[in-house]
Amino acid sequence: MKLRTVALAATVAGSVALSAGASRAADPTTADCLGASDASLKLGNQHKLRAERSQLLVCAAATCPADIRKECLARVDDVNAQIPTVVFLAKDGAGADLAAVRVTMDGETLAERLEGTALSIDPGEHTFTFETSGQPSVTKKIIVVEGQKDRRELVTFGVPAEAAATGSTTGPSVPPPETSEGIGTQKVLALVAGGVAVVGLGVGAAMGLVAMSKKSAAQSACPNDCATQDGVDKWSSASSAGTLSTIGFIVGGVGLAGAAVLWFTAPTAGAQPPQVGVGPGGLLLRGAW
After folding, report:
1. pLDDT, tens digit, for every residue of 86-133?
2. I need a labelling partner for 51 at 20 to 30 A (CA). Which of 44, 138, 220, 250 fits?
3. Nearest to 75 by CA among 46, 37, 34
4. pTM as predicted
């Protein structure tokens, strides 16, 4: 544990001495150390972890009071674990790797070129812009999760080779032509009613043929008054078949009428709904279909 602390202290001291953005970090005074410690706490509450780490490097310097320096050294480990890192990979349209890519995050320069190394990012939503010579810039919005390490993000410049071969582009796609609306619920009901009508008429016709056959058989067995049970049964069966035939034709006729009304009164796009009124001699139906 002591060796780890000494090594970390040496690393922190070296980072502080080489940091160009912290002019007072080389030999901070006690006031500087206290100010950096307080600032690190506020930055941590705002999830600005990179700035928090920079302040902790200041108050971890060898010239800071021992208690402050010890606390800052301990917190550096925690913040390093919380800071997410992202590895950006860039390719051109042919799939070749690109290194000469400038990266900005929320308008601030993050890297002048890509080296294949992980970049420290504050957690949250960020807008990244990638620029390389001879290609339009690429912008990506990414939500970075706290503690996530070495997340890979691929950026492609230009038109991919596959898209160029097929003649497609990365521009906005042309929306397909609008299709007409469906036939509507009322017309669907009309089709259902028409189906019922067809079945009814079919049953009526079939039972009509059966009734005619049974009537012929009954007349042969008992042309006048029937004195036998067989003749009575045949006439009864013929009568029942005739009744079913009549019912089938009635159902078919009503179904056809209902289907016609539903179909021709169904509203169409842009048309006024049908109007029903009472006129001399019956009902008046007005509308467009």
Report:
1. 999 999 988 999 999 999 999 999 999 999 999 999 999 999 999 999
2. 138
3. 37
4. 0.45
Amino acid in position 218: A
Summarised one tens digit per residue, pLDDT across range 66-83 is 999 999 999 998 999 999
CA atoms within 13 A on the CB side of 158: 17
Pairwise CA distance, residues 269 & 256, whole Å: 25
CA 202/CA 134 separation, integer angstroms: 76
Phi first, then psi, for residue 93 (nearest 5°) are -60, -25
Give CA–CA dist 208/210, Å, rounded: 5
- Residue among 57, 68, 56 at smallest CA distance from 30: 68
For 254-278, the DSSP string reads: HHHHHHHHHHHTS--TTPPPPEEEE
CA angle 164, 167, 172 (to 5 degrees): 95
